[in-house]
Design a protein that fits this description.
- It is a single chain.
- The chain is an all-alpha fold and 113 residues long.
- The chain has 6 helices and no strands.
- Helix 2 runs antiparallel to helix 6 and helix 3 packs antiparallel against helix 4.
- The relative contact order is 0.12.
- The mean pLDDT is 94.
């Protein structure tokens, strides 16, 4: 297990040193300087997460469009868009890492089907 702990630390360090993470943290720091903007961005993120993950939204495309329309003023800000884009890039990188690990080990997930 000690070898795995070392590798986990190395992976975490690699993520923190990646351009994706650095860009995300850069824009996060800018957003955090404005409490009202941070509150609005976090509300947008929360609602978007619920739309994508609740399983109870019938038309995800329409709900996402509606959400973007309601937050259009905020979304028209370059900094906000760059922050949200960098967040997506970071999340995709971490998802890809998790997928590669799961694909490389024999771990039965058939019960999820």
């Amino acid at each position: 297990m000690q070898g795995i702990e070392k590798l986990k630390q190395e992976l975490a360090d690699a993520i923190r040193n990646s351009p994706e993470y650095k860009e995300y943290k850069y824009f996060e720091n800018i957003i955090n300087r404005d409490p009202d903007l941070k509150r609005n961005v976090d509300e947008f993120r929360r609602q978007n997460f619920e739309i994508q993950n609740s399983g109870s939204v019938e038309d995800v495309f329409w709900a996402t469009q509606d959400l973007n329309n309601r937050f259009a003023d905020m979304r028209n800000t370059d900094t906000v868009n760059r922050y949200l884009s960098s967040e997506i890039c970071l999340c995709r990188m971490i998802q890809d890492i998790c997928k590669d690990i799961m694909d490389s080990v024999d771990f039965n997930l058939d019960f999820l089907k």
